[in-house]
Amino acid sequence: MDDCTGGCLCGTVRFRLASEPYDAGWCHCRTCQLNSGSPAMVFATVSLADYRFDQGEAAVRRVASSSFGHRAFCGECGTPLYTHVKHQPDTIDFSVATLDEPGRVRPGFHIFWTSRLPWIEIDDRLPKYDRFRPDTVGLDGTEPPA
Ligand SMILES: [Zn+2]
Ligand SMILES: [Zn+2]
What we know:
Keywords: Lyase, Metal-binding, Zinc. InterPro entries: CENP-V/GFA, Mss4-like_sf. This is GFA family protein. Belongs to the Gfa family. It comes from Sphingomonas brevis. There is one protein chain. By secondary structure, the protein is mainly beta. The protein has a single domain, classed as Metal Binding Protein, Guanine Nucleotide Exchange Factor, Chain A, CATH 2.170.150. Helix content is 5%, strand content 36%. The protein has one helix at residues 30-36, and strands spanning 4-7, 14-17, 22-27, 41-47, 51-55, 60-66, 69-74, 80-85, 91-95, 110-111. The strands form 2 sheets. A 7-stranded mixed sheet has the order 6-7-8-9-4-3-10. It has a 3-stranded antiparallel sheet with strand order 1-2-5, with no helix packed on it. The longest helix is centred in the first third of the chain and has 7 residues, at 30-36. The chain binds zinc ion (2 copies). The site of one zinc ion has 5 residues, from helix 1. One zinc ion is lined by residues 8-10, 12-13, 74, 76-77, 79.
């Protein structure tokens, strides 16, 4: 993949991925709905070291979004940038929509399908999981969001 770059709405934060993202998927949990103000979010995973700020890192703010993780967002415009959870310390899940070319990263599954909004209609034949995927790395002992 060519350089995968992205940023926030106001342009303060710019980032670049040093490796190809993987495990892209939709999340329909309440935390994502509230964090985005939207029915769902699409995340993809990349190693923490490979998510590199080109500018605006000082403007990035973090909020504890659960007992086991935080979300980073642009402190100037509020764009949600990524989530980082304790049970996956070496990777982050970034918002695919923040890429300059978000269409390049295709989601492959849905999680927290049971929390989806009743008027959303998705007929994409992707696997749909009630909560987390059963093989989620390091999930034992964590308390998933309701
Ligand atoms: Zn911004
Ligand atoms: Zn979620």
